[in-house]
Specification:
With 228 residues, the chain is α+β, with helices and mostly antiparallel strands. It folds into two domains: 3-86, Glutaredoxin (3-Layer(aba) Sandwich), CATH 3.40.30; 93-210, Glutathione S-transferase Yfyf (Class Pi), Chain A, domain 2 (Up-down Bundle). It contains ten helices and four strands, in the order E-H-E-H-E-E-H-H-H-H-H-H-H-H. Strands 2-1-3-4 form a four-stranded mixed β-sheet, covered by helices on one side. Strand 3 (61-64) and strand 4 form a beta hairpin. It starts with a strand and ends in a 16-residue tail after the last helix.
Length: 228
């Protein structure tokens, strides 16, 4: 098997989840290499192992026959080019441009949602979710934008996924689904249906099972509690 995907903890690593779900759901074979989170210091095991793979020093990293690709967008593009039969981007040029646009928006935006609603699959924070929505207007704006985006795409492309069939855009927003679920964020019925559809994907279910089985507690990724 030529592809190896280096990832962090499945409970916390939203960036790792994107390419893992994409490859798994598309049926692209790869070998998973887990680099568990630790102190994140420069001389930590996590950083030391990553330094051998990528100068960026972050997960995920895709390695293809010794060639490393880092950054989730680059990994997605590499997979789409290497496996064109999987149609990971929409076939239509305009839909493909829109899919790239929303993935780039996710990649570089939604900072307030990321900061306040960190991915933590095994935890549930309904009270914190409601408090943050009431006190952090930028988080509310991020949620509203996601609802608007998903609603328009599901309408324009007829579902069941954002661009009809499952693709890169759905994989990119799978961690957002987990954040909305974990913080029990209220959404319109059409968005709740999409959330349930993503949650039901075999790849997302497999990632979730693995996350629940980790039982790690990484304090740097736990802003809302001091222990499990």
């Amino acid at each position: 098997m030529s592809l190896q995907l280096y990832i962090g903890n499945k409970n916390y690593s939203s960036w790792s989840m994107r390419p893992w779900v994409l490859l798994k759901q598309a049926g692209i074979p790869f070998e998973e290499r887990m680099l568990r989170f630790d102190s994140f210091d420069a001389d930590s095991k996590f950083k030391t192992e990553l330094a051998r793979l990528s100068p960026a020093g972050r997960v995920p990293v895709l390695v293809d026959d010794g060639f490393a690709v880092w950054d989730t967008l680059a990994i997605a593009e590499y997979a789409a080019e290497k496996f064109p039969d999987k149609t990971l981007w929409p076939a239509d040029a305009k839909a493909r441009a829109r899919a790239r646009s929303v993935c780039a928006e996710m990649h570089s935006g939604f900072g307030a949602l990321r900061n306040h609603f960190g991915m933590n699959i095994e935890a549930s924070f309904p009270e914190i979710g409601q408090r943050v929505l009431n006190t952090e207007p930028q988080v509310r704006a991020d949620v509203d934008r996601i609802v608007q985006m998903w609603s328009e795409l599901l309408t324009d492309h007829g579902g069941p996924f954002l661009f009809g069939q499952f693709g890169i855009a759905d994989a990119f927003f799978a961690p957002v689904v987990k954040r909305l679920v974990g913080f029990v964020v209220p959404v319109p019925p059409v968005i709740q249906t999409y959330i349930e559809r993503v949650q039901a994907l075999p790849s997302v279910q497999a990632w979730t099972r693995d996350a629940l089985a980790e039982h790690d507690f990484v304090e740097a990724d736990e802003p809302y509690r001091k222990a499990r």
